[in-house]
Design brief:
Elements (H helix, E strand, L loop, with lengths): L1 E4 L5 E4 L3 E5 L17 E9 L4 E7 L3 E8 L2 E5 L4 E4 L3 E6 L4 E7 L6 E8 L9 E6 L2 H4 L4 E5 L7 E2 L4 E7 L13 E5 L4 E9 L1 E4 L2 E4 L3 E4 L4 E6 L5 E8 L1
Parallel strand pairs: 13-14
Antiparallel strand pairs: 1-20, 2-3, 3-4, 4-11, 5-10, 6-9, 6-11, 7-8, 7-10, 9-12, 13-15, 15-22, 16-21, 17-20, 17-22, 18-19, 18-21
Protein name: Quercetin 2,3-dioxygenase
Pfam families: Pirin (PF02678), Pirin_C_2 (PF17954)
Keywords: Iron, Metal-binding
Length: about 240
């Protein structure tokens, strides 16, 4: 079963400096039908104006992943980490017993566009920790690249939960033939659920059209097929324990 979560149905918070779209209930947006998906709790699509951002604030017992789509996001935290993450970077913070951090647009002239993702950890009271890795566009073109996993395999960031997070760039334009070029078949094991989030462009999911901002919840499907449907397409795939 595939259930589409259209981008226009998401919650929204607009503070001028921040325009945020909420796939699941968050902040002042509450929808009992959309409280999360398996252990996936938050997918916020955020756009922050130049030189603005989130002042220092705290988190506990949450796996927080930031994925930048354009621009640069400056991060500082109470563990002593400080960096600017850019497209291709995957940042993971395990808040555990408590961590404070700030996130600001690193540019004085250009907006930053990113996804903030929260995943419930497999245990509370973990020691706070931080990890950041880069995954090139070439490595993600036309295939699913593992960027986060419970055991940190294949040089992915370690997420303290039974989840595999993949990213793929899918396009439809073969310069020679113009035919659909990028196609992925993904088998789904029993007792697993999959969430697809389209970050850019559009894709076909089992012939269903998904566009930027759309999500899809997938249960009881033995396999799915993803096909590029635009010149620039980018998706995140979460494979989660039910």
């Amino acid at each position: 079963m595939i259930t589409i979560r259209p981008q226009q149905a998401r919650g929204r918070a607009n503070f001028g400096w921040l325009d945020s779209k909420h796939t699941f209930s968050f902040g002042n947006y509450y929808d009992p039908q959309h409280m999360g998906f398996a252990n996936l709790r938050v997918i916020n699509e955020d756009r922050v104006t130049p030189a603005k951002g989130f002042g220092t604030h705290g988190h506990r017992d949450m796996e927080i992943i930031s994925y930048v789509l354009s621009g640069g996001l400056e991060h500082k935290d109470s563990m002593g980490n400080g960096s600017v993450i850019r497209p291709g970077d995957v940042q993971r913070i395990s808040a555990g017993t408590g961590v404070a951090h700030s996130e600001f647009n690193a540019s004085a002239t250009e907006p930053v566009h990113f996804l903030q993702i929260w995943i419930l950890p497999n245990q509370t009271g973990l020691q706070p920790s931080y990890e950041e890795k880069n995954f090139s566009s070439a490595a993600k073109q036309g295939k699913l690249t593992l960027v986060g996993s419970q055991n940190g395999r294949d040089d992915s960031v370690t997420i303290h939960q039974d989840v595999d997070l993949y990213v793929s760039h899918l396009t439809n334009s073969d310069p020679q033939s113009g035919s659909l070029r990028d196609r992925i078949n993904y088998p789904i094991d029993n007792n697993r659920a999959v969430w697809i989030q389209v970050a850019k462009g559009s894709v076909l999911l089992n012939d269903k059209l998904l566009e930027a901002g759309d999500g899809a919840a997938i249960f009881d499907e033995p396999e799915i097929t993803l096909v590029g449907n635009s010149d620039v397409g980018e998706i995140l795939l979460f494979d989660l324990a039910q």
